[in-house]
Amino acid sequence: MSNASTSQKIVSVSAKQTQALAGQLAKKILTSQTRAGALALALKGDLGSGKTTFVQGLAKGLGVKGRITSPTFVLMKRFKNFYHFDCYRLQRPEEILQLGWQEIIANPQNIIAIEWPERIKKFLPKETIYLNFKFMDKNQREIKIGKTAIFMVK
Questions:
Q1: Biological process (GO) annotations (predicted)?
Q2: The pLDDT of residue 3 is above 50
Q3: Where are the domains of the chain?
Q4: Which residues, 6 or more positions from 68, have their beta carbon under 8 angstroms from its beta carbon?
Q5: Which of 110, 139, 131 is nearest to 17 (CA)?
Q6: Going by CATH, does the domain composed of 7-146 fall within 3.30.450.40?
Q7: Planar angle of CA 98, 127, 3, nearest 5 degrees
Q8: What residue spans of 10-151 are helical by DSSP H?
Q9: Distance between start and end Cα atoms, the chain
Q10: pLDDT digits (tens, 9 = 90+) for 69-119
């Protein structure tokens, strides 16, 4: 596999397709090479652009049982080695550190999905993979996945 950084743009026509795409990505993550630290996915996009829907499919693909909802009011939800952060309500980037952030990102077993990552940009791992979500219409979302050399999906 090439080490070249590339990006991929996908148009999803339904929530079900967005979740299936995330499930494919989860399978690639589970079979990817060993990492030095946690695998961080930064999900950027406006409200309603499909970020939480994507995380639901990702969690299911990682084998997480149970209902996945956005942790807007609690900031973080943990499911074994899968962490889902919603940084929308953070007042200052440093607040993320109070949630054990440094320990979480240091563990190569961890997979982290971060909604509103721009609020903690200075604390994101260098190898963070960015996914940009764009609302197109009632059903369609454009998802641009950055740095997909190891995660190309169909």
A1: tRNA threonylcarbamoyladenosine modification
A2: no
A3: 7-146
A4: 52, 55, 56, 59, 60, 77, 84
A5: 139
A6: no
A7: 165
A8: 15-30, 51-61, 101-106
A9: 16
A10: 776 667 888 988 999 999 999 999 999 999 999 999 999 999 999 999 999
